[in-house]
Amino acid sequence: MRGATRLRDAIQIPRVWKYRALSTCRNVTGSGIVHQPVLLLGSGAIRIGRDVRFGWPTSPQFHTGYIHLEASGPEALIEVGDGAEINNNAYIKSEGAGIFIAQRALLGSNVQILDSDFHDLHPDRRRGGQPAMAAVHLDENVFIGDGARILKGVTIGSDSVVGAGSVVTRSVPAGVIAAGNPARVVRELRDAADRAVSAR
């Protein structure tokens, strides 16, 4: 087992350093615990809390992918709270409104979080128009399943779970499970034991 861990590190550590060298965001605070490479881009700010984990060695695409955090414009901001865990190949991009991930949040692999449409939706203004933007908030201890997409203006209430593959276009209250495309509340987390299971 130790030999496998040493081999994993020998392969992964140069990749981590490569993506660090490719990162262009200069307004970064914190660094987290990096298992999978993290690419930090943009002219905005990225704030990483204490004990934030990036990547998971036993999840898919650990050795081939990377985690993408981009605060693209000067007003853009991504904040990741203490103890959050972001799994392999997550894609988090703020164009200006801001993305706020509270402490102890769990994000599955291939999760996407976006605070903008990035293009005006009207055909005549799609190039050079003003895209719609709105902040995204993931409250404390949320659990976002693999492949879920969280779109602009959404708040996920504390302790809530978003099912794998869901597309979240509207806010989700605290203490529920939401799933589907578009995501909707399918049930409440009934008691303290249920909430504890969701946080694992």
Contiguous helical run count: 2
Content-based structural category: alpha/beta
Mean pLDDT: 91
CATH class: Mainly Beta
Fourth-tier CATH superfamily name: Hexapeptide repeat proteins
User: What is the tally of beta strands?
Assistant: 20
Give the % helix: 10-25%
Strand order of the largest sheet: 2-5-8-11-14-17-19-20
The third-level CATH topology is: UDP N-Acetylglucosamine Acyltransferase, domain 1
Distance between the termini: 24 Å
- Count of separate structural domains: 1
Biggest sheet descriptor: 8 strands, mixed
Low-confidence stretches: none
Describe the structure.
This protein is an alpha/beta fold. The chain has one domain: UDP N-Acetylglucosamine Acyltransferase, domain 1 (3 Solenoid). Helices cover 14% and strands 31% of the residues. The chain contains 2 helices and 20 strands. The strands form 3 sheets. An 8-stranded mixed sheet has the order 2-5-8-11-14-17-19-20, with no helix packed on it. A hairpin with a 2-residue loop joins strand 19 and strand 20 (183-188). The longest helix has 21 residues, at 2-22. The model has no long low-confidence stretch (mean pLDDT 91).
